[in-house]
Amino acid sequence: MAxxxxxIRRLNRSTLGKLVVVAIMMFGFGYAxxxxxxxxxxxxxxxxxxxxxxxxAAPVNSQIDKTRTIVVELDGNSQGPWRFRPTTRSIEVHPGxxxxxxxxxxxxxxxxxxxxxxxxxxxxxxxxxxxxxECFCFQEQTLQANEARQMPVVFFIDPALPRExxxxxxxxxxxxxxxxxxxxxxxxxxxxxx
Length: 194
Fold this sequence. Notes:
The chain is α+β, with helices and mostly antiparallel strands. It contains one helix and nine strands, in the order H-E-E-E-E-E-E-E-E-E. The chain has two domains: 1-49; 70-180, Ctag/Cox11 (Pfam 04442) (Sandwich). The protein has one helix spanning 2-44, and strands spanning 70-79, 82-86, 90-93, 99-107, 113-122, 130-135, 141-143, 148-157, 167-180.
């Protein structure tokens, strides 16, 4: 019996020793994994958190076609009680480059109005290539009496635009919808009858 229990103890100590060695190796591997990962990423040039040198250059958008310049002419038409116009008449952009233009609207009436803008493009071949990221034309606009507002359009022109297109006209027609907005009724005053 004594030999069996001493053999089990020896076996338990041996197993415990192996488990301790495995646990230390796992801890060492986990600890060494961070610098090894950083070295691999630096060698491969992926997931680099910091750059060596004095400054970090801004990333380059490879989708911008710097070999072409497109002139975008801006136009505004209004059908209603306001003045509506672009704040600039034209802008030069490269295909793929993000650009912002601003339109100004002034409600000349003494009442609030709802309006909507509808864009159009010339030449017509441009339509699928003119990509708006942000535009006041995406939703109805409510203008208070005598309100003036600057409204941005953020866009880019798809680099797949045919090369023969050198000029684009972006035109908006701004028109009133739904008629005049009624003012909220004032609460009635008077005696309460019980």
